[in-house]
Every structure is written in C-alpha cells, then in structure tokens.
Design brief:
Layout (H helix, E strand, L loop, with lengths): L15 E3 L2 E3 L6 E3 H9 L17 E3 L3 E2 L6 E2 L4 E2 L3 E2 L6 E5 L3 E5 L4 E3 L1
Antiparallel strand pairs: 1-2, 2-3, 4-7, 4-11, 5-6, 8-9, 9-10
Length: 112
C-alpha cells in the first residue's frame, strides 16, 4: 500500500512519483513534493495582532484569563517569557511567575 498523498484536485488515490513531482493519472495534475512536505511541516502561529510567534519569544496577555480548576486569574499585561509553541487546542506552553506551568491560546497574547 502506498503512502503517497491523494490528488489535491480530484482526490484520486492513484498518484505516483515522477522525479521531484507527484502526478495524478486521472486528471493529469502535477505538484511538487517539496511544496507538499513544507505544507505539512510548517504551521505558523500568530498572536492576536497577526505577528508571527516563534519559540523563545516574550508575549503579553491581552485579556484576564481564569485558570481552570483554580481561583487564580492571569491578569491583562502579564508578561510571559520564553514561550514554546506546540500543536493542539492550546498553542503555547509556558511558565508564568506566581502561577506555574500553563497552556495558552495565541489569540489571547501579543508579541512584545
């Protein structure tokens, strides 16, 4: 069984490799393997203002956030240093002084 991707135009499962290209024999569509691999590996995370975030960045919280299962609140303006981007429901793993390890969503932070 082949692990090649289906055709992005007609969804055919009969794609094959031709050099550095994928080819669909049903509709004739050709696309680059490099573009396919980059699309799978790059997931750009952006803050509330649309700035691109990277591992190690410092961000500021833009909304009061209640900590689930606790009476603690992360206040507006809290600075979070050395973030780590992850895939999943929450995009940022970090440690907040006075609270501890947390997971945040990128929509509630802005890059400093």
């Amino acid at each position: 069984m082949s692990n090649l991707p289906n055709c992005p135009q007609c969804s055919s499962e009969y794609t094959y490799e031709d050099g550095m290209m994928y080819v669909c024999p049903e509709c004739g569509h050709e696309w680059s393997q490099i573009a396919e691999n980059e699309a799978e590996s790059t997931s750009i995370k952006r803050d509330a203002n649309g700035n691109e975030l990277q591992d190690g960045d410092t961000v500021t919280v833009i909304k009061d956030l209640k900590v689930k299962g606790s009476s603690l609140v992360v206040k507006v303006g809290t600075k979070v240093k050395n973030i780590r981007l992850v895939d999943g429901d929450h995009d940022i793993d970090c440690k907040i002084d006075g609270i501890g390890p947390m997971k945040l969503k990128t929509e509630f932070v802005k890059k400093v």
